[in-house]
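Researcher: Next entry in the queue.
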Amino acid sequence: MRQFFILVVFSICSVASLMAQNISGKVVDEKNAPIVGANVLLLSKADSTFLAGTTTSEDGDFALANREDAGTLIFSFIGYHSVYHTLDGNENIGIIKMQVDEHLLDEVTVVGSRII
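Model: Structure for this entry, 116 residues:
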């Protein structure tokens, strides 16, 4: 009876730890430098509704609580193309490389005038 009780407790702890896993990875630019403050959004598999979000750390790392209905991650940052990653059950996404958006403005000129 004691062995059965220990087996039940161990099984419950194992299931709880599997459900509490995080989705993690690292976001870098074309030169493998970390992108600090990139947005990471987790969308639902069924209807692409927002489930969770975070920003990357100083090292470009991120972690989100995994959800059963998780389907897509979106990585975005000003000056870079957004990256869409479909989740396949692997919690460690690895390295996400973002490409610079070449269609940025070269300069902005602000002109002020007043009526005399």
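Model: The chain has one helix and seven strands.
Researcher: Noted, moving on.
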